[in-house]
Write a structure and sequence with these properties.
Elements (H helix, E strand, L loop, with lengths): L5 H16 L12 H8 L3 E2 L9 E2 L1 H10 L11 E2 L2 E2 L1 H13 L7 H5 L4 E4 L9 E4 L8 E7 L2 E4 L8 E4 L3 H6 E7 L22
Antiparallel strand pairs: 1-2, 3-4, 5-10, 6-7, 6-10, 7-8, 8-9
Helix pairs in contact: 3-4
């Protein structure tokens, strides 16, 4: 079993509540709020409007914060609700409830879903789906990229939703590719490539 990132979990769970529950009259700025700063560094917080005075979170930020709220939820084979998830049930739930995009049920189907575009590992952004070959077949596992080379996922039976590093040898060897929804494309960045682009597999 690979080590869990407890420091990241603690910070994100504690600080996500600040952004999720802050009132319109007292929204934290990226400079004053550690989570806002974390999101800002990853371009997940849009620049404040002149008349507004406070940054707004992007769709990617909402998705990442929502995913963090499920840390420690038990793995459940076939699960796609808040009692437990398997890997593809987890990503399907997030995209359905926070992007209004209903993904297919299986991870390999999600990887080939026409509403998602392929991205290379070098251009990963928080909110992208990352796929791995864990069962000797392509796209047999999926998670959500959160930045800093890390992803959140529901690994396997007997485990819980957790954060892991894509730099770990196990995951680095099994990386299969990544996908991005149109709503997740960062402002000012090139659009993701079509699914027939030839950049799948480990870097």
């Amino acid at each position: 079993m690979l080590p869990r990132v407890n420091a990241t979990r603690t910070m994100m769970l504690a600080l996500s509540a600040v952004l999720l529950h802050a009132g319109a009259s007292a929204q934290p700025t990226a400079e004053a709020d550690p989570l806002g700063q974390w999101l800002g560094e990853r371009r997940l917080v849009q620049a404040p409007q002149v008349q507004a005075g406070a940054p707004t979170r992007s769709a990617a930020a909402d998705l990442v914060v929502a995913a963090m709220n499920f840390l420690d939820l038990p793995y459940q084979r076939g699960g796609n609700g808040t009692d437990g998830f398997d890997c593809s049930g987890f990503t399907r739930h997030l995209f359905e409830h926070h992007l209004s995009l209903l993904l297919p049920r299986r991870s390999d189907e999600q990887a080939r879903f026409s509403a998602l575009s392929a991205v290379s590992r070098e251009t990963l952004e928080p909110g992208d789906l990352v796929f791995f070959n864990t069962l000797k077949r392509s796209f047999s596992h999926v998670g959500l990229y959160i930045g800093d080379g890390r992803f959140i996922h529901s690994p396997r039976s007997g485990s819980k939703v957790r954060i892991e590093s894509m730099r770990e040898a196990y995951w680095a060897r099994r990386f299969d590719g990544a996908r991005r929804a149109e709503a997740m494309s960062p402002p000012g960045r090139p659009k993701a490539e079509s699914l027939n682009a030839k950049h799948e597999g480990s870097p």
